[in-house]
């Protein structure tokens, strides 16, 4: 190999030269740390399970606390007591019919009885006046019988308020019956007097029967059924 060729060859660079050359080149980019994010929020305890929906208590639950009362069938005392009031109603209708059919005789008996007792019969107390009084009394009695029939129906179906009303009506009937039976001086026919006595006994028995303990227990049970929505 000639010297010219050798001069054209470059000598290998040393390590120092490599370092210098390396310094003149591109510097390596500095290592970058990944961006830091805020720490995850602390975990909270899971929410408790939702409570089941609450419903209002059944009607009458607060009033009738504890165990339900023992089921009670309609006792004999209620059946007999209501039957006594029904019989009194039937006899009342019969008495009203008899009064209308014997109206003239009843008027004459009333006037004759007043004179026999030494009472002065005013001139204004005529036959027509007595007739009007008896007719009005009979009509009022029929209206009362109709109302009593309604109260008997409600009492038969376990309505305690109707039983109380029957007691009140029965009390007036008993007082009236006492005057009829023991008052003397009756001016009605024998048949009507007998009807009045029977009605007095029926009303007295009906009032007593509806006031006995089995009747009270049944009416309380029927009220519990209505308050708890099990019947109307």
TrEMBL record:
<feature type="transmembrane region" description="Helical">
    <location>
        <begin position="132"/>
        <end position="154"/>
    </location>
</feature>
<feature type="transmembrane region" description="Helical">
    <location>
        <begin position="80"/>
        <end position="101"/>
    </location>
</feature>
<feature type="compositionally biased region" description="Low complexity">
    <location>
        <begin position="60"/>
        <end position="70"/>
    </location>
</feature>
<feature type="compositionally biased region" description="Gly residues">
    <location>
        <begin position="16"/>
        <end position="25"/>
    </location>
</feature>
<keyword id="KW-1133">Transmembrane helix</keyword>
<feature type="compositionally biased region" description="Pro residues">
    <location>
        <begin position="31"/>
        <end position="59"/>
    </location>
</feature>
<feature type="transmembrane region" description="Helical">
    <location>
        <begin position="194"/>
        <end position="213"/>
    </location>
</feature>
<protein>
    <submittedName>
        <fullName>Uncharacterized protein</fullName>
    </submittedName>
</protein>
<keyword id="KW-0812">Transmembrane</keyword>
<feature type="region of interest" description="Disordered">
    <location>
        <begin position="1"/>
        <end position="70"/>
    </location>
</feature>
<feature type="transmembrane region" description="Helical">
    <location>
        <begin position="161"/>
        <end position="182"/>
    </location>
</feature>
<keyword id="KW-0472">Membrane</keyword>
């Amino acid at each position: 190999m000639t010297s010219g060729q050798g001069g054209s060859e470059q000598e290998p660079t040393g390590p120092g030269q490599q370092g210098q050359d390396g310094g003149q080149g591109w510097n390596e980019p500095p290592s970058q740390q990944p961006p830091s994010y805020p720490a995850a929020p602390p975990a909270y305890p899971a929410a408790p399970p939702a409570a089941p929906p609450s419903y209002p208590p059944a009607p009458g639950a607060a009033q009738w606390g504890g165990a339900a009362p023992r089921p009670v069938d309609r006792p004999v005392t209620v059946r007999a007591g209501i039957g006594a009031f029904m019989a009194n109603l039937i006899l009342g209708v019969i008495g009203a019919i008899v009064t209308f059919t014997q109206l003239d005789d009843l008027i004459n008996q009333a006037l004759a009885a007043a004179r026999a007792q030494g009472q002065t019969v005013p001139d204004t107390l005529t036959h027509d006046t007595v007739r009007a009084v008896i007719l009005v009394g009979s009509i009022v009695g029929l209206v009362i019988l109709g109302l009593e029939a309604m109260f008997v129906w409600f009492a038969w179906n376990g309505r305690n308020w109707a039983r109380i009303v029957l007691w009140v009506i029965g009390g007036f009937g008993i007082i009236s019956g006492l005057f009829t039976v023991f008052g003397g001086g009756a001016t009605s026919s024998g048949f009507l007097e007998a009807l009045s006595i029977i009605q007095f006994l029926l009303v007295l028995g009906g009032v007593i029967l509806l006031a006995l303990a089995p009747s009270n227990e049944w009416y309380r049970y029927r009220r519990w059924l209505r308050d708890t929505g099990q019947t109307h």
